[in-house]
Amino acid sequence: MSDETVKDDAPESPELGPDASKADLKAAADEILKAAKAAEPEVDADEQADADEQADAEAPEEAEPLTPDQQILALEVEKQELRDQMLRAMAEMENLRKRSEREKTDARIYAIEKFARDLLSVSDNMARALEALPEGERDALTDGGKGLLGGIEMTQKELHTVLTRHGVTAIEAEPGAAFDPNLHQAVANIPSEHPNGTIASLFQAGWKIGDRTLRAAMVAVSAGQAN
Questions:
Q1: 3-state DSSP assignment of residue 55
Q2: Fold of 169-227
Q3: pTM score > 0.85 for this model?
Q4: Of the candidates 183, 188, 184, 205, which has an alpha carbon nearest to the alpha carbon of residue 127?
Q5: Burial of 117 per CB tally in 10 Å (0-12, 13-18, 19+)
Q6: What letter would DSSP give residue 178?
Q7: What local confidence, expressed as pLDDT, does residue 59 receive?
Q8: What ranges do the domains of the chain cover?
């Protein structure tokens, strides 16, 4: 578009001299606004109707109000969801409480595990001292010897009582008892009068603390009776 065209389309401004009054300035401004408004393109009525229809189509539809039955059903669903959430929360709290109690119990029981393991060597030495003196020779001991022997037996018994009081118990390993690899350590396989696969004899006592094996019992496993 040329500069001449722009000049032809633009509304002409009335010429005002430096001595123009306020009324003249207002009249000139009104004339310019009127000319500019007349120059604006007219909007077709059909186009305006189409634009309004499109705007209405793009506007989100308002949800229809729920019927009383639908409202009751929605509330029932919400109530069930809240009830399920509450039950899950209660179950989690109960599991947390049980786990906390179990951890406290384990901490109390297993806190002495290392100390108890160290005491086992004391019990073993007492057992060896008693086994070193055959039953048939004990009657020949002097009164002092018998007193020493009795003191060892009492000390060993008291030690086992204290260990038991703190949850440390001996593992059953009597001849003929079932062999349990979680509790027993097989160091030999020998013929015996006991059924095959059972314990034939005990070499060293085993101990457990709570549900843990502190030291497995060293045993010989029966291979059954020799032919």
A1: helix
A2: Nucleotide Exchange Factor Grpe; Chain A, domain 2 (2.30.22)
A3: no
A4: 205
A5: middle
A6: B
A7: 55
A8: 169-227
